TrEMBL record:
Domain DUF5723: 38-432
InterPro entries assigned to the protein according to its UniProt record, in alphabetical order: DUF5723
Species of origin: Tenacibaculum jejuense
Pfam family, one: DUF5723
Protein name: DUF5723 domain-containing protein
Length: 457
């Protein structure tokens, strides 16, 4: 039992990432900020990102438990730890991943108003709703849960591996208003989707003292692309991923839009809507569906070794009574829609710069306070994060930001961002949940972003 659940949680611990980049949003005119808001202000003639190193991001977040809860060496046996984790889970707990690597990123100022930016990045995006009820069923068997309905709507997962080619225009309409849009071509290499499931599983005590199991209003769907060959054999290779991640067989379209508006010399607001689009999957597709009402008797959900043929008998019983429909039809998957809304107030006029010329109003202030609201649409509905920040410019070459974020994963997430300019080289880094850096296993959330760009102003 211990080995099986270790494998289960290690598998999904690699899928528990978050997508919010609250430290970078609106920070120091970093070129990667255009990917978070195509209407962000730019003050440079052109930029070129160092290939592969211009934008690397990864973050880890879990709601309901941490890795330390399961694997900390504290003289508590694993079964007890696992039971405690399951007991503390909530039906709405989930795991989320997004990681990106920029392969190419560049931009050029076309004229006094327009800035063109283009690039290509790879992305891994996944969502997993942690099925507490079914984990309890596996852990304890069905005897403690007579007449309880286990809802299949609690089974939801979605994962993509893709590449994104993009091109965007940012226009400065006047001194107060800047807006932009970005067109994206998605190229999917791998997808697994199972969402919108319905139905319930219920165990009752029958008249002959045998358990009676009922599947009611069942409608469970699963879609996959890139995992199985024409013989329904698992067939995932690195060549398949690299061959489809750039203008491969699974293509889609999307766009981003955003703006920045200066209310006055010290106050501005901004917003962006990202990944409005879809991917159509047609390569190595295998889909399945189970639908209907079924009742069968005599099988107990006992997770032990007392019946070595248990799983085979269970599988045979289900196959005999529940028909499964499979097909290889292409299908479309929407990208996870994201919304950012932010505001900032700049203050603390710098005496050393008051008499300088040819400067934007932001250059006159060494401090800023602000906030950001982030939302992402997931298979269980929109999820939100609220961030407040303080920004401090020590010189033209060094800018810092500290953030405080509240979301589903933590109510004490403090982040830190640093942007340094040396000659025409910009190096930035951002770290989330800095108070937990010395013990990441005990943290529900941790992330980082890093990049190097060549910028000409």
């Amino acid at each position: 039992m211990k080995k099986i659940f270790i494998l289960f949680f290690l598998t999904f611990s690699g899928l528990i990432f978050a997508q919010n980049k609250q430290v970078l949003y609106g920070f120091d005119n970093i070129p990667q900020g255009l990917l978070l808001n195509p209407g962000a202000k730019t003050d440079y003639k052109y930029h070129v990102g160092v290939p592969v190193l211009s934008g690397i991001s990864a973050s880890v977040s879990t709601s309901g438990f941490t890795i330390a809860d399961l694997f900390r060496e504290d003289n508590v046996d694993f079964t007890t730890k696992f039971n405690n984790v399951i007991n503390n889970l909530d039906n709405n707990d989930y795991a989320y991943i997004n990681s990106q690597v920029e392969v190419i990123n560049a931009g050029y100022k076309l004229n006094k108003r327009d800035y063109l930016s283009v690039g290509y990045y790879t992305e891994f995006d996944a969502f997993l709703k942690i099925p507490k009820e079914f984990l309890e069923l596996i852990k304890d068997g069905n005897a403690p849960f007579i007449n309880r309905n286990f809802l299949f709507s609690n089974l939801a997962t979605k994962a993509d591996v893709l590449g994104v080619i993009h091109a965007g225009i940012t226009r400065k309409f006047n001194e107060k208003f800047t807006a932009g849009a970005r067109l994206k071509i998605y190229s999917g290499a791998l997808n697994v989707t199972s969402t919108g499931n319905t139905g319930s599983f219920t165990t009752r005590l029958g008249t002959t003292s045998l358990y009676q199991h009922s599947l009611t209003n069942l409608n469970v769907n699963a879609y996959s692309s890139g995992l199985y060959n024409e013989n329904d054999e698992f067939d995932l290779t690195a060549d398949d991923i690299t061959g489809n991640i750039f203008l491969g067989s699974n293509l889609g379209l999307g766009f981003d839009i955003g703006f920045t508006y200066a209310i006055d010399d010290q106050t501005e607001i901004s917003a962006s809507l990202l990944d409005v689009g879809f991917i159509s999957y047609s390569n190595k597709v295998r889909n399945g569906n189970v639908e209907g009402d079924y009742t069968f008797s005599g099988i107990e959900f006992l997770f032990d070794n007392s019946n070595p043929d248990y799983w085979r008998n269970l599988n045979d019983e289900i196959n005999a009574r529940i028909p499964r429909n499979e097909n290889r039809e292409s299908y479309a998957v929407m990208r996870p829609l994201k919304l950012n809304f932010g505001g900032r107030y700049s203050f603390g006029k710098s005496r050393r710069e008051e008499n300088c010329s040819d400067m934007t109003y932001n250059d006159y202030y060494d401090n800023a306070l602000g906030g950001q609201i982030f939302s992402v649409l997931t298979p269980i509905g929109p999820r939100f994060a609220l961030t407040g920040f303080y920004e401090r410019k020590f010189s033209k070459r060094l800018n810092t930001r500290i953030t405080y974020t509240v979301d589903d994963f933590s109510n004490s997430n403090i982040g830190l961002g640093i942007s340094a300019n040396i000659w025409k080289i910009n190096v930035y880094t951002a770290v989330d949940n800095v108070l937990q850096l010395t013990d990441l296993a005990a943290s529900n959330s941790a992330s980082f972003q890093f990049g190097i760009n060549f910028i000409s102003r």
